[in-house]
Fold each of these.
Amino acid sequence: MMDSVSAAETTRPVLPDSLELAALLCSRVCHDLISPVGAIVNGLEVLDDSKNSDDREFALNLIRKSAKTASAKLQFCRLAFGAAGSAGAQIDTGDAEAMARGFLEDEKTKITWTLARTLQPKNRVKLLLNMLILAQQAIPRGGTLTVEAVGEGEDAGLRVTAAGLNARVPQNLADLLAGTHGGNIDAHAVQPHYTRLLAQACRLGATMAAAGDTVAVTAVAA
């Protein structure tokens, strides 16, 4: 009996404590910012080294585009992962929509936002933004992310539906979001794990499942 208990304990996944979770989320944010910041540095190096007008114009365009991208990512990450106000603060969903579009929309991916503009509890807005990140991973070739409420009133749930070519649930992501994955939480798993924690804080249960040719990330009352 003791041997079987010991074996079960050794195979139990190790969940990150508060310090490790903070470190994993910081790594997640840094991963998003490395590319545009690196491009800005490269553009500045071209400006320093080249006198060719075409090269300098190319560098300036690269800096402008990369700075805009970095700013959009920082604003989104501040709201999705940061404190975003004091405890109990409320956030305008219109601001959340603008940040989501700046972070996720491009020539391949578009957002259809059907939520009315209201003030919502901070964690609820953070949950929605993290659900959008997960849903985007279901359409690697691009498509449409539709944001909607599930039900009405203060107890309404949230749903983000991803529709696109070959939409699919990424490996292990649904289990990580539901808390049924047996592995440890590392940098690759922290996104769905953090989303699950936010859902729990909002007294909701989060799931990710395929539905026909779409994938839905849903948070509703458990």
Note: The first helix runs from residue 2 to 11.
Amino acid sequence: MNDAASSGDLRAWISRHLDPLEEREAIKSHAQTSDFDLGPAYGPNEVDGPLTPASVLIGLVERAAGLSVILTRRADTLRRHTGQIALPGGRRDPGETPWQTALREAHEEIGLEPHFVSLAGLSSPYQTGTGYLITPVVGFVGEGFTLKANPDEVADIFETPFGFLMDPKNHEQQERELPSGEKRRFYAMTHADRVIWGATAGILHALYERLYGAAVA
């Protein structure tokens, strides 16, 4: 997409590359990404039982320098993924749509009022090694919003330039050894001394593939 395009054109271009807002019970009909894409040996067979549905919000904020993405650092008191960089989101409650979950979780975690978010569509579902199936919900965040971290869940809120996150040169592949002794390979993106890795980086890499992986006008 041309950098000189208007914000309206950019919104429309991004939206065209996303899936429409709809239920996704037939997951197999949609392109799916996962924690296992870079390391086949560490695969879906490691997850027992049905996957738990969840959603995250990829909130795109229009700034003078261009779009940025709202990210958080998880609280140090959480049992899982302590201190990691994350997109606002969480487990889906019964009866919720993926986008209702994303908006509710963003409100609970960072105080983002839902009426500031203009939903654009859904990116590729992402399966985690901990048994979650995450639906990324993309939305544009309008002017005038204020954020406040829920200290029980979030230690910090910040924005990272969308252009940086969508530049494949910044999509490193790293490897760590699991407690079981197996090695896990994953995407990582480092910006301003913050390391975005694991599922969050994988979700953002999948969005890059949807937007720029094929030549679409």
Note: The mean pLDDT is 85.
Amino acid sequence: MSLAGFLLLGALTQPAPAATTHCELHRKDQTWQGTCPGLLGGTPALTLSPAKSVKSGRYRADADPDAIYAGDMRGPNASVSVELEVYRGGSGILRPEGVRWLVVDHVSTSPDTLTFDIAAGKTVPPSDLDRAIIVRAAAILSSATVWDRADDRQCGDEDKTWSIYCAMLRATREVTGGIHHRRPAMEVVREVVDRRSAGRNYEHRLRDYNNDPRTTLADVRTLFEDALSRLKQ
């Protein structure tokens, strides 16, 4: 579901304050239900259930999550889907739909409760798969003949041309087995576009930079090169 109308739309899409939020969920039948008071400026209600895989794509190649949960994050009038992956030692990642990933610490489970902290001031670091995504996207946009200069943010499996945004989505699916619009690879590319387009007032950064008549194929190539350089840093 779209983020439109969601209670935390403004807070979730803005930089988070440097604080830690404690989430406590209680078991009800086969789900855990609870809240994260103060999460990014709101008090969303979470419902999570055990899941077999992370549908929005694998985060890293060198380790598998010890536990995976999927469900929703709700406000009074709408909700967004969310996934939680937990690694050995109690660290993890919370992935709300359409929102940047959140760092999770101190995950603890018992027969009746699921608790964890969200380190709102931290950023999920790019993984080896994020680097592979950017390398693959650069290969997809290898020439002017396959570059879609009129991006409408609609990306199909049968497309023969790709915008920057659609190339990134296709690469994400090929590399990780799923897509999430705000995984680290996408965020790094957006950061490069932000630097290049200061003062241009783009509505959708990747779409508008792609469609800007000032953007050349050479710019697209160096966009991916700059993103890879940022990953090394």
Note: The chain has six helices and eight strands.
